[in-house]
Amino acid sequence: MRFDIEDYKSRTDRLRWDDLDFGAFTDDPLDGDTLRVIEYMHDVEHHTICYLRDLLVTPAHADPEITAFLSLWAYEELWHGEALGAVLAAHGRLSGQQRVAAMRQRLGIRDRIRPLLSALGSTVVGERLVALHMTWGAINEWTTQAGYVRLAQRSGTRCWPS
Ligand SMILES: [Fe+2]
User: Which domain holds residue 55?
Assistant: First the structure.
């Protein structure tokens, strides 16, 4: 099965949530465990750009189809994080730029050397490192999706067609 980047380009959009009733959280707030999971998901969604940073120092940046996909994907992921941030903010929890900045500050040296390791690794093994990155990214997407489904099940919500 071949991925159709032109089809993806024509269909992609940012997530919109202006039709959600955030006032309902005042009377019926999410429980602490659910909010903790949403905080984690918020952080993961906002961390996508850091994954992208590490990938773009590999030969992936030379492939226009891959970079088109990654550009749109990163845009979508940003809005996932923003939507979760809106839910956290409705519960008085830290979210958005303040939370993301603090999280990135805590990542320390390991995060700072990742692009160097990625560039060095791709110099040594070439496109195989890109394949590894993309595989890792796909696994992250699948586990994140499974996490959202589990969160929806736990809260008794149906999140998308099964
Ligand atoms: Fe996402």
Answer: 31-155
